[in-house]
Design a protein that fits this description.
single chain, elongated, Arc Repressor Mutant, subunit A, mainly alpha, 82% helix
Length: 92
C-alpha cells in the first residue's frame, strides 16, 4: 500500500485514495478466500480464472478431466461469491 500511495499525486482526490484502498483490501480478501479453497479447487480457479488457461489446457496441466475442473471452478465461484456478499454486508 505504501508504494501505491507514494505513486499518487499529492493533490489526489481523497475519495479516489479511499477507493484505491478499498480495492486493495477487497483484492487481498479475495486472495485470502482463494487460499481457503481446497488445493484442487484453488489450482483449478487460479489456472482458469486468474491465469486465463482454457479448461482443456488446465485439464492437461492438472491431469484431471475437464468436467472435474468445471465442477471445481463452479464450486470455487459459489464459495467466493457467498464470502464476498457476507463481507459486503458486514462492511455496510
Amino acid at each position: 500500500m505504501l508504494q501505491t500511495m507514494d505513486a499518487l499525486p499529492e493533490e489526489e482526490d481523497p475519495d479516489k485514495v479511499d477507493s484505491l484502498y478499498d480495492f486493495k483490501e477487497t483484492k487481498e480478501r479475495l486472495y485470502s478466500l482463494v487460499k481457503e479453497l481446497s488445493p484442487e479447487k484453488a489450482a483449478a480457479f487460479t489456472l482458469i480464472k486468474e491465469e486465463a488457461f482454457s479448461y482443456k489446457e488446465a485439464s492437461q496441466i492438472l491431469g484431471v478431466p475437464v468436467s472435474t475442473l468445471e465442477k471445481q471452478v463452479s464450486g470455487s465461484l459459489k464459495h467466493l461469491r457467498k464470502a464476498l456478499v457476507i463481507l459486503l454486508i458486514l462492511v455496510s
